[in-house]
Amino acid sequence: MTYKSVKGTRDLLPADTSAWLHVEHVIRTVMEEFRYGEIRTPVFEETAVFARGIGEETDIVGKEMYTFEDKGGSSLTLRPEMTAPVIRSFIQHSMGEQTQLNKLYYIGPMFRQERPQAGRFRQFHQFGFESIGQDNPACDAEIIAMAAEIFRRLGIHFTLKINSVGDPVCRPRYREALQEFLRDVHDELSPDSQRRTETNPMRVLDSKNTRDRELTADAPVIIDYLTDECREHFERTLAYLDELGISYEVDPRLVRGLDYYTKTAFEFVSTDLGSQDALGGGGRYDGLVEQLGGKPTPAVGFAAGIERMLIVMEKNGYDFPASEPAVYIVGMDDESRQWAFMKAMELRRAGIPTEIDYAARSVKAQMREANKLGARFVVLAGDSEMQDAAAQVKDMREGTQESVEFDRLASYFSGLGIHKDNTETR
Ligand code: HAM
User: Fold this and answer.
1) How many other C-beta atoms are found inside a 10 Å radius of the C-beta of residue 379?
2) CA Rg, the chain, in Å?
3) How many Å lie between the centroid of ligand 1 and the Cα of residue 304?
4) Which residue has the CA at smallest separation from atom 15 of ligand 1?
5) pTM of the entire structure?
6) What is the DSSP code (8-state) at residue 117?
7) Residue 23 in contact with residue 309, Cβ under 8 Å?
8) What confidence tens digit (pLDDT) does each residue in 347-399 have?
């Protein structure tokens, strides 16, 4: 009997994780520049956090959550997204009382029981950020600009689609107009869209069904129903994007799959992805804090799928930084193997990534291994070198070789600038 990872989940092996670490490093760098702080919440929450936060009528809550009862009888859910948990935490820790604007980011696994396909997993990973406390359109633009900046640094080309989904004043008026339109074509709509006409009519515009799309081609659009306040917010957000030189397409049919959005809603899509073409999406959610029991607090945020970003990067031949040993110390006999082991420890402590052989292989096999791993330098110490306490250092890139005293090896390599940052912990 052997076991496999569960459908829709996967193992990331060292060859994969080096790319992930690079993406995470770029994300963290940009987050530091924009002064966002990382938040880490538990991977599961009380089910109500998501049911109330994301909306009972959404696909996520209705069909896709990993919900289970624990032994104490509580209903818990593996997080399908992070906005609701972040807001739960924001309220729990009274973050709104400490500063006018909380700027938070996260990176981590999410869980949705969707049908797995290219770019769609049941455990996937998001990075995202939430700007909580201000209704300034500059915050909407900043969130979009940050996402665009991260994509730019990772060589990911995208199209930005943006819309305003209004607020609790304009949406009911629009909803009514849309429902009236949809009821006229009711019998021809797909069963899902027929149901949504009554429960969540804006999602009908998002239907993937071709006939649904034809039937709704002339449906009323929300832009025509926005209140002056929502319209102005939208226009000012777009004006910021114009000034920042971030191009976008206004897509009046864009609705997102989560119910908490108000005003700005946007999505980054890529033609390098298949049918699951959304790299990430987000928007403003001015009602969510109150919905989850806090004081009314405006907020805007975004999240992207890291697997999808990596698909695009790999397709584009992105040049990921390699993770190669700087030094490979070849052991020749018992004595020099023992020496290699101790010297490797010393070099590693000095921040120099060093590899040795653990399988008592021949010198030839070790040289082959050093080559395969892409070691920049190979250190050899045979009988006479042991006697002289000076090793032969071979530069594998230049093809040169020189003798370096044992005691000087660490400073020799450090001097070449190949050591990694390693903060002293004495
Ligand atoms: P979302 O659109 O549901 O938004 O997810 C954001 C991104 O997560 C998607 O665009 C996609 O790249 C990725 N994603 C979603 N489901 C899967 C899956 N099954 N497999 C692989 N990738 C997936 C949210 O989650 C909101 N919380 C975003 C947000 C933050 N809005 C405001 N703040």
Assistant:
1) 27
2) 28
3) 6
4) 305
5) 0.93
6) B
7) yes
8) 999 999 999 999 999 999 999 999 999 999 999 998 999 999 999 999 999 99
